[in-house]
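Standup notes
- DV: blocked on the single-chain target, sequence here:
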Amino acid sequence: MKFHQTPLKGAYVIEPEKRGDERGWFARIFCEKEMAAAGLVERFVQVNNSYNAQAGTLRGMHYQLPPAPEVKIVRCVRGALWDAIVDLRPDSPTYLKWHGVELTAENRLAYYVPRGFAHGFVTLEPDTEALYLASAFYEPSAERGLRWNDPAIGVQWPAVGTIISDKDAAWPDFDPGYHGVEHLRGL
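- DV (later): unblocked, structure below
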């Protein structure tokens, strides 16, 4: 596995290293030892699968506050999506900065999303599926979100989401008090 640092502190794009012969190829997409050697979280308690029937489906921007902040590893297993993260850790040098990457079934890249980051994606093709590992269990009382098109953050989405849940559309613009970012200090 190759770990490519993004411009956001602690966030990585993970590229599988293919090893092939006349039969095809083999690639490791998760390895506890390699994650630990790279200084990344290597214990995950949930694996989630998201199916999206239509292109333009937007999910996010979600995160969890302590005591259930989560690391995610997100991978597209069918179709294509554009995945965005926002650093919400107030003591981070990349606080309130965002980064996005295209994940496709063809490029097989994964996104390592650290604790204290909001995460969301928009599908670029119909019938897109994402598979993601989570280091903490879903905790409704710890869940927060920020509006996908919050002007204070300014994520430059490649496609405007045409399908957005009522919940995701209702997240407010960024407010440090409401969004609980003080609880993310030190992550």
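- Follow-up: The chain has three helices and 14 strands.
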